[in-house]
Amino acid sequence: MRLEAITWDRLGDLLSERLLELRAADGGPWLRVAFDGAPAARPGDLAERVAEALRVRGRPSLVVGTDGFWRPASLRLEHGHRDVDSYYEGWYDTGALWREVFGPLEPGGSGRVLPDLRDPVTDRSTRSGYVELPPGGVLLLHGPFLLRHWFPFDLSVHLLLSPGALRRRTPEQEQWTLPAFERYERETDPAETADVLIRADDPRRPAWRG
């Protein structure tokens, strides 16, 4: 694949400018954008960068991380703390994401999005209030495995790490998750599925295709 060297600042600007011109596929007033990638690729950092670039341009947005939508530990860890299949298939409450994040942004929806549901550290409800995203606003959702759920994204961005980079940048206590990302690559092929591809092996020198 041919990728072009770029800076993170320039990426934020280019993606925000693309979103200013984009129209929702369902004709609704909100855009929904995926920043898909392993935690080691830090997709949330890029989502925040794009949010800031949109703010400067007068466009409202809301950054939401899927780690705020983990299922309760009693369900998530039913098969053990390091079960790869559970991590891949069952840690994230996709039903809550559909109900609390995507549903309100459908045509005719309220625009009132729940930014998080459960604290991933304490396993307790965050009790966060709903945030109203005004018409014309942009949802910037970040997390792993986003492109396997048929979420209605208007633009998808995948942050790609080579197997070696993924291994180096994943903390030792999380190395057990690596087979889940291998499975994701094999089953979903996010590098080809995503609208925008960013290689982030060297966090100082990204490259992209978009």
From TrEMBL:
Entry annotated with the keyword Coiled coil: no
Keyword annotations: Kinase, Transferase
Superkingdom of origin: Bacteria
InterPro entries (UniProt xref): P-loop_NTPase
Biased composition (Basic and acidic residues): 198-210
Coiled coil: none
The protein's name in its UniProt record: Uridine kinase
High-level lineage: Bacteria, Bacillati, Actinomycetota, Actinomycetes, Kitasatosporales
